[in-house]
Amino acid sequence: MKKNIQILFIMVIVILGAAGMPAFAGDSSESRAGGVFSETMKNYDYDIQVITACDGRKRVVVEGFKEGELLPPEKAREAAKLLNSLMNYCEAEIVAVIPKNRIDILLSVNGEPFVNIDNTDLQLPLMLIHGGQSHTEREMQIWKAEEQKVIEKGYKLFHSQLTGTNGVSCDMCHPDAVNTHPETYPKFQTQLKKVALLRDMINWCIEKPMEGKPIPDDSEDMKAIEAYILSTRKGVSLDYGKH
Fold first, then answer.
1. For residue 124, what pLDDT is reported?
2. Phi-psi group of 231: left, alpha or beta (phi > 0 → left; psi -120 to 50 → alpha; rest → beta)
């Protein structure tokens, strides 16, 4: 599989080189992404306009228009739609090119050579995002183990009398996290007289029935309790606002 992908990239380099579009091999470091963009800009001998996403990691190069030139509405919408699609890939550094005289687009992901993508689909191949290979079984097992660690920590806190101060624990009112209904949040919570998230009700229970101190929203303990409660509702459809 890896050999086939390498052959594909070599073919793309040859094709793009013949078409006058730069392609780069480089090393495997993340710095290649910025290098690809810089080299792409240097190798253009005609007008281009670059639109950069708010994260600074996604760029759309529109051929045939000068920097600062007002794009026609249709072309501007095309560029905006493409940029929004690229934002779905949060961690990736992406340079996308909308060619002047072609209907497809060209993409370089994380410094890899440019490849052709159908502009009607705008879905990046999984192989591109993951550096030419899918997740391994070992990776999946590691991630599952890390997730389970957080859930187990939440389980212990949920069942601990020390989360409060009077000996009452969460599970005494909600055995196995029943009747917590995490899928119904956000919703207007009558006890709080405002719209609440699951974490707000967790703290309400800790402060009121359990007479404990609230847990900070961004703490590892709060994340763990939320993770445990949510894990017990796997497969349940979201239904926010339900009472």
1. 59
2. alpha
